[in-house]
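Apologies for my clumsy wording, but could you write out the amino acids of a protein and the tokens describing how it folds?
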Amino acid sequence: MATTRDIYLVIGGSGFVGRHIVEQLLARGDNVSVFDIVQRYHDVPFYSGDISDQEQVSTALRRSGTTCIIHTASPPAALKDPALYWKVNVDGTKAIIAAAVQNRVRKLVFTSSAGVVFNGAPLVNMDERLEPPEQPMDAYNESKQKAEEAVIAANGIDGLLTVALRPAGIFGPGDRQVMSGLYKVYEEGKTHFQVGDNNNLFDWTYVGNVAHAHLLAADKLDSPPPAPPFSTLEEFPLEAPPLTEAEQNILIHSLPPLDLTIGRHIVPTSEARPLGPCITPPPNAEKLVGSFENKRTNPEGRPFVRTRFDPLSEPNLFREKLSNPESSPLQVAGQVFYITNGEPCYFWDLPRLVWKNLDSMFPGHRQKRRYLVLPASVGLAFAVGAECWGWLIGKEPALTKFKVTYSCADRWHNIEKARRVLGYEPQVGLADGVQRMVDWWRKEYASGTHKTAH
């Protein structure tokens, strides 16, 4: 029996992430429209409006025949306007939910942020069990947190299915925040400054991978849960029941390594290794070398072990089922998922890769200089003083407490849940993603979009 294909409305489809989602939907032949306050592209039907106005959103839903909303709209994170964040991210999201329920829209995919759980403390291999802090780092993440809560709470209301994705450190073609900031540092000759010791791992995520995750979430949002929710049972089990076959199909297999940037490396073992110099080869020399050179393309046969600390272990899944008996932690609807490249790197490594790529555009612009490294504590003290001075003169300083904390803390996330439940695998590695972003920037520069002194 053929399934009916969804009709998509990308709210914020003229923006950075939204545009990449639109392009991927078009590439696979889907019916897609855009709702935004400004029209930058003319290849899909466009509806102009204010997302905080339920009736305007509702009108777009009716006219487009939408069955699936992908909500990416949000002001840039660097603004100093808490009221705007609240209006767009909180009031706007609630208006979208109300309009979706009003028009019997079946699906809602929401672009949240990994920053909703960040409070300045290190986040190491963080998974979805961590609750957002009571005091978020800033107004942007506070508004995103409240919007995400509203989206997840709406799951199941009059048949609406919702999911929230938490991407981290988005970059790529079309980016006018990360790339713009890094280019400004490059143009001003400040690439030799470093705050912190650069021993903190940070998650950067290529925008195309983020868009890919949204499509996967939309496609699987109405998939049935792999095990019946506890609320449907006659009585709650006192101990963890055996995994169903569907749960086992999700959990009990090894995942391939994420090696888009670093490549696949083979570790010599007692049964597979290069021989090296030898006078008399061992009797099984041919087998040893053959086993080493036969590159495994899938992880089947590798041992798979979980501990009770593992987020997807049976005890933790049982705990989640008890805390939320209305759903399964291994279904898409009603869940949140971290989305990253799965390639955490030292924070300053990606900016330096961008600057190295810019050197090919402006040969000789950068002179070799030793890095000037400010300890995090010194950078924080300097930022506090700069913010006080900036407050007096009415100008925001280049270095702030948030920027120092952001660049010096460990912030990387566990994406196993997204890989297993959504089927998400990053499509573009960090190095390739940086090259694509700089190539886009090069075209923008050549067209005269960016003015420079070079």
